Every structure is written in C-alpha cells, then in structure tokens.
Amino acid sequence: MKHTLVVLVENKPGVLTHVSGLISRRNFNIESINAGYTEEADMSRITIEVDADDEYELEQVVNQLSKLIDVIKIIDLTGKDRVHRDLALIKVKASPENRAEIINLAEIFRAHIVDVNKETMIIELTGEDVKIDAICELLDDYGIIEIVRTGKIAICRGPKAAKDV
Amino acid sequence: MKMTGAQAIIECLKKEDVQVVFGYPGGSVLTLYDALYMSEFPHVLPRHEQGAIHAADGYARATGKVGVCMATSGPGATNLITGIATAYMDSVPLVLITGQVAVPFLGRDSFQEADIRGITTPITKHNYLVRDVRDLPKTVKEAFHIARTGRPGPVLIDIPKNIFAEEIDFAYPAEVNLRGYTPISEGDSRTMDAVFDELKFAQKPLFFVGGGLNLSDTSEIMRKIVAYTGVPTVSSLMGLGCILSNDPRFFGMIGMHGTYAGNMSTTETDLLIGIGVRFDDRVTGRLDQFASNAKIVHFDIDPAEINKNVRANIRVIGDLRWTLEKFYQKLQEKPAQEWQDQFKPWLEKLSGWKKEKPLMYKKDTDEILPQPVIEKICEITEGNAVIVTDVGQNQMWTAQFYGFKHPRSLLTSGGLGTMGYGLPASMGAQVGKPNKKVICICGDGGFMMNCQELMTIADLNLSVKVMILNNRSLGMVAQWQREFYNSHYAHSCMRTKADFVQIAKAMGVPAVRLDKKEEIEAVLKKAIFSEGPFLVDIRIPEEEDVLPMVPTGAGLNQMILGG
Fold it and tell me: What is the pTM of this model?
C-alpha cells in the first residue's frame, strides 16, 4: 500500500541525500520524493510516497527516518483529510489538424497550454496523480514526446499545520 | 578568548573531559597536530588509521567513555571506514575528527580530498562538515552529545584545513539544542504492568540479554531481576559478562554457536523478554522458527529496533537505566519465592539440557585444543581480565569457554564481524584501563590484518597479552568450506614460513611459541604475569570446529552438536 509521508527537516545542505539514502539502503521502495522550502526559513519539507508491504514495514520507514538527527518530524498523511497534487508538463505532438482536439482535451482536464509551435504543444497540468495518468493516456494517441512530473506533494485540510498535528 | 580553530578543538576536548586521542597526522591536520603538540594533549600514534579507530573503539567499550580519533583528509579518513562501521553496528560512542582540504579546494578532486561526509553517512549516527570556524565549538558539543546519549554511536566531524588556522572568539556552549534529536530516557510505566501480567501467566519465560546492558551499565539491576524471579536467562554475544557466567539461571549464548540449552529454550519458551538486543540473524537463525511459541517483549532505547527483525507483542521503549529499575520495582509486587516456585520446573528443564549436552571438546588428544586454552586463560586470570577478541573461531571459542564475570569484559566486533579488530582494540582498552589485565585472543588471519600495532603496543609498553590461536588457516571460513562446500579449501589456508614469534620480537614484543600440551599452563602464566606486552603463538590443529553450530537457514533447535 502506498503511504504519503511528510518529513520536516532542518534546512541544511545534504539532508535530502541523508533521507533518500536511508530509505534506499534500508531496502524500502520510494515511489516519489519531493523537497522544498516551507513557511519557516530553517525548515524544509520533504514529501515521500513510499510503498510498504504492511504496517510493520511502514513503521520501520518512519522509525528509521526519525533517527536522523536532522529530521524534525514525520507525519503520515495516509487516510487523513488532505489535498495532494502532482504537477506535470507534457510535450505532445500537435499537427495543425489535431491542435483543436488537444486544446479541447486540455480544457476538460483544466490544463493549460503553455507553449505551442508548428509541431508540438506543452501542456501544464496539476492534480492528483490519477488525473495526470488519465490525460497522459489520452494524449498518447497524438504522440507524447516528453513528460516531466514533480511527484506528489500533500497538505492537510483544516486549520492546523502538519508540524502541529 | 581569541584562539585558532585547532586550539578551539583542544579546548572542546578538555571541556568534554577527553583524556586521550588516538590519531594519525597528515597534511590537512598539521595545524591541529601543532596545537596538540603545543598543549601537550595526550595522543596515541598507532601505525595505521584503522589501528587508531579500533583502539578508540576498544577504549570506549572498556571505559564507557567516548573514544576520540583523528585522521587526515582523503586516505587518512577513508582508512577509518571499517572502524566507523564496526562502532556503528555495535553502538559504540566515538567522535571522529577528520581533516579536509581547505574550503576553496572542496569539490575539485584536490590532493587528498575525499567526500568523507558522503562516504560515512550510512555508518555514522550523524556527521558534519564545518564550513565556518565559528560553528566549531557548537559542532563539537553536539557531536559528543549525540555520540553518548540515546543509543550511542559514532559521530564524524570533517574540518577543512583553513578552518583549523582561522581565529575565533572561543566560547563553549553550555547546552545543546537539537529539535530533531530528543533521546528517550524515561519510558512508559504502563508497559511494565503489561510485562508483569504476561510474566504472571507464563510457564516458560526466558530473559534474553544483549549488548544494551553493557552499553548502559545496567548489569547489576539485571542480575537482581534474574535472582529475584528465577527466570532462566540467555545472552547474545554482545551481552556476555552482564550475567555471571556460572549463575545457575544463566545458560550462555544463543544463536549460531549458542549452547544446546540456550537454543532449545528459545524454541520452547512461551514468553521471550529481549533486553537491549536487536535480534541479529546470527542469533535468531530462521526467523519464522525463532521463539515461535512465545509472546515477545522487547526492551530497547531505539524504537526503530522494535519489529525490525522479530515482531514484539509488548514494546518497552526507554533507557534501560530507567526501564529496568521500574521493572524491578514492579516485580516486587509478587514475592520472590512465588516467582521462583512458578518457574522452577522450567528452570529444572533447562538445567537438565545443560547437564545432558554441555559445551564439549575432545579430552583425549595430544594436540593443543583452543577450548581448554581459553578455559586456562580464564582460570589464570580468575575471569577478571578484559578479553578482546578478533573475529572467527577464536571469537566463538572465547565466547563459549571464557567464563565472563563482569560487564565490559568482552570486547568484540559483534555486528560487523571485523577481522583485524582484536589487536588494536586491546591496545585502546589497555590505554583506558591501565590497571586491568587485557588479553587479545585472535586467530592467525585476523592478527595479520593489523599486526603493525604490535609496534605501538611495544612503544607504549602496554601490558597487552596477545594469544594467537594459530591454525594456519582462516579457521571459520575453512569450517564452512568443510561443512558446506565439500572441503574445498578455496584460499583459506595460510601455510607460511613466516614466524609470528620473530615478527613480534622484530616489533619489540617478547614472544614464545606454544606447541606442547604439557606446557600450556606454564607458558600462559608466564605471558599473563609478565610485565609489559607478550605474544604467544599457540599452535592448534587445523581442523578443529566451533560447535554446536546452527547452519544458515535452519532453526535454532537444528544444531550440529560436538564433543
């Protein structure tokens, strides 16, 4: 089962390597990992999607990560009321004849066309991963040249910050 | 006070009450070494950086203090790796100071540059690269704090050359403030009630003690708990010495080379209480058959150890100094006699197993067998020596046949199984415990891996007694080849014309060869009671096995017995 972990860490060089290195050397499977600044200057937030066989494996991931000195807090957002997003930029073949169809498709998915030229378009889409998977499947018919995705980021609904959960 | 980074480090070491550092100089740490020289700070110079770190490790294990080791950048630092991993696996508190190329040279593959922070990330509790001299005192303070608190471990500080020379206004911080690091000391008293309730209904409980007791110096309270309840007790390799070896409730080591009674008891127990253990695969054998009839209780300071290998029904997280005291108090709600009566049939069953199948070896031989040699060393030292082993057969025979009486009296590389550990670690132990008899028991293979440290031992006139159980082979490797690879001795034989006695003498250590059975006692006594270092090259047979043995992939009750 996939779990979304929020890992709050000290904003120092090398911390992301520490976290990702620990996960790989402990033989856990990372689906996606994402790091960025937060509302606090000295804290970064890493969102990890990890595939755990059972609760024991997940517990090990969390407990082993917690041992890192630069890890401040880990919150498992799985099952919590949350918003999660993935951003994708998709470069797709778009001949003048196909263009209107693709624009239509993009509108249905509330995606943005951020670049067009004679042969291709770039589509920007944010959403849950299933939504991005769906548009990719449809665009495949036109010929996808390149996809770049950020991986999942997630945040809890409600007034509290994850660090206070 | 104005001082250089190098002087600041020495001030920090003094504030941390460091008595001695083990280290090896080189280009990047010359400024630091100059400051050591000027301040006359005690320093041990081994002959290899690996010797330095194993010595610091032996010092830390023997004394309970933080071991400190210094090396230069690049090859100096990378020579520490095996020692860092050794300390990490056995949770030994070390602070390692490595030199690094100057900040402007970082990342350019400069002369003697290695990314030691990157290299040591998986094998340190924490590590630092200091880029600003003003961070130095705070970093050292944190490093010692992290190394010695919670579950101990090695912490590395990498310091670029220019930082040693730059000036700061020195002030040592009084406190450490790390929001991501709050080591657990106390636990949850309610867990004691749960353990108490389980024990009340158990018929066949078993205490399984480990290295955590040695690290936290809690053997005394554990001995009280064993005496009060009469619960049979077994140990991991790292837990030896915590319980008196001849205690009638103690049944020795369990695992791959564990005792018959110990291993059988894990199969039959209905309540296994692991205390400061990490259920290593060398202990459990086949996991699904380990204590499969038992509920498991796990005492540990590190929450990540719970359910890592063996799933616990009750977790008792906290420092053993707290949890064992609380547990002992809780146990007193029931009188000692009642506890002992409850477990008497079970204890008798284990005693029967022990009597039926004790640790054995051939008695009717003219050869010098390693087992009686170890027993003789124990007899001569009255079990009071600090025993440092290398890795392999010598280590297992020592674990089986030296009757340990004291905590911190067996220093051995348990987790990583580092050959070459014994000699330098015994050197460090003797530096830390100058009034104790320190005996290094090693094989001929492991001895050669760091034999250069004999020279250091001779220079410092350390009273280390080196006992080489010499079987002209990599004994444990050969044993496995004999057992599982059709006796194909693929590169495990070391038949050589070299002479360890001459090697020792050339390095300044008196030595003799022991090859006559009737001379065992006299030679060992001479070695052990002599002043200063001594080496005995003990010629044992080539094909002597460590038994019992549980083959890999088998359950602990599927032992190959010996004798």
Answer: 0.96
